[in-house]
Amino acid sequence: MAQKDGKTAYPPVIVLADLSVPYLEMTGAEPCRQTDPEQWFPEHGHNATAVRLCHTCPLLADCRKWALANPQLASEGIWGGLTRAQRAALRRNEMRQAS
């Protein structure tokens, strides 16, 4: 893509995943794999059943860690027992504490 001044413009580099936090190794027995995917991605608010099921999963902590490290990939739905708003609040708090 060329700009009017003759310089070439490149699209911005977007890092899609934080490679320091690997994606979960799932077995297929996790609650999110055993139920209707729509439960985990409600249109509005959150699904209390999905959150409750999430808290029974042995991968809860790893899932939460991955979702917090990769907000652009886990921007919607229930991840690690947290809603989008809850994850955003945790990230904001972490940034405040770091500064």
Description:
- The protein is mainly α.
- It has helices at residues 31-34, 48-54, 60-69, 84-98.
- The model has no long low-confidence stretch (mean pLDDT 85).
- It has a domain at 35-98.
- 36% of the residues lie in helices and 0% in strands.
- The chain has four helices and no strands.
- The protein starts with 30 loop residues before the first helix and ends with a helix.
Main attributes?
99 residues; mainly alpha; Whib; 4Fe-4S
Which range does the strand content fall in?
under 5%
Q: Helix amount, in percent?
A: 25-40%
Order of helix and strand elements from N to C terminus: HHHH
Number of helices: 4
Task: Report how far apart the termini are.
Answer: 38 Å
Average predicted local confidence, pLDDT: 85
